[in-house]
Amino acid sequence: MVLTLAGRPLHELLDRQTAKLARRLVRGFAEQLPVYRRLPEEELDGDITAITEHNLRLISRAFRERRPPARADLAPLRESAARRAQEGVPLEALLAAYHLGARMVCERLFARAGPDDLGDVLEAGRIVLLYMEAATAAVCSAYLEERESLLSQEQHAMHATVAALLAGDRAALAGVRLPPRYLVLAVAAGRHPDEDGPGAPVAGRRKLHRLRTALQRYAAEPVLPALDPTGGLVLVPVQGAEPEPGELAEVAGKAAGVPVWLAAECAPPQRVPAAARLVEEVLEVVRVFEQPPGGYRLADVLLEYQLTRSSQATALLAGLLDPLLDNPDLLRTLTAYLDTGLDRRRTAELLHVHPNTVDYRLRRVVVLTGLDPMDPAHLQRIGAALAARRLTRRP
């Protein structure tokens, strides 16, 4: 049975005004949807009007055949959605246009409906809903497929840029617009509690996403990450003043929900490979010497960094405290004494002993090693010896 309105077939009423109604709908899109208002007139009068007319013809056929459109009929909608994705039109704006268009069509067609038309109007409304269900499904799937393809291409290009910068491959960077400097970060991220559950891979990716998003706030251009859930390298484009590493670590750690250690060095693009090697070494020093989460530069760990350079002196320094190995309490007390800034009372509290016990043990250290922590000259050697032991992982 043909759907009618005031005795006239509903699909004929729509067919008769398709071109005029399409232009009216496009004007409505431009008036009510800010994204469409910013589109060029040529596009509104061309692609947008053409796909709107196609939608109206599909609705007319749906009224005539009393069924939603077939998949093949929706191909132009999918192609149009893919173009909108390429242009950067948000999906929500695209769907808003479809729903606005459906509402305007219904208002236009049913404005003069009378009581005798109620049954056909209700059936027509049901068909419009079925049409919108099919249309929005086609639009969403095509839009998201195109966006995923574009993102994949962007990510591939981003990874290629990171690889070329880290390798110093100038030929691969030809034609790539680079900032004047990068803040090169070596990052270590703690393990999130969710990474211990069955959804560990997803939790790891979510943690990385939050970390990258936090770092992105400090750059006008996309940051270039080379990360896995434990950490890695990030290149942050710098245009003006470079952000403070300590602030970056704090913000990134809060966003990721885990402790974050990072080492930072600013460098022009051609110096990125050397800067990357340096920050990785600095971060390794920070982790070996069990520094707290935060942001570090080479200047923060100069002594420890120097001790990590391979030489015969490192083993000799570590061996200065070997006489204490038979009495672990002495080595533990000496370490705590230096860690607390030569504060015997805090050392005693930390070790849960009396301050006199600390004094006694320190005197024993002098007897066994010949190194007196009260002597400034000896103190430097003791600090270096303790650092060397940590580096060589001696007991």
TrEMBL record:
Task: Give every PucR C-terminal helix-turn-helix domain span.
Answer: 330-388
Superkingdom is Bacteria
| Alphabetical list of Pfam families matching this protein | HTH_30 (PF13556), RsbRD_N (PF14361)
> Start and end of every RsbT co-antagonist protein RsbRD N-terminal domain?
20-157
- InterPro entries cross-referenced by the UniProt entry: CdaR-like_regulators (IPR051448), PucR_C-HTH_dom (IPR025736), PucR_C-HTH_sf (IPR042070), RsbRD_N_dom (IPR025751)
- Which PANTHER family does the record cross-reference, listed alphabetically? CARBOHYDRATE DIACID REGULATOR, DNA-BINDING TRANSCRIPTIONAL ACTIVATOR ADER
**Would you tell me the protein name for this molecule?**
PucR family transcriptional regulator
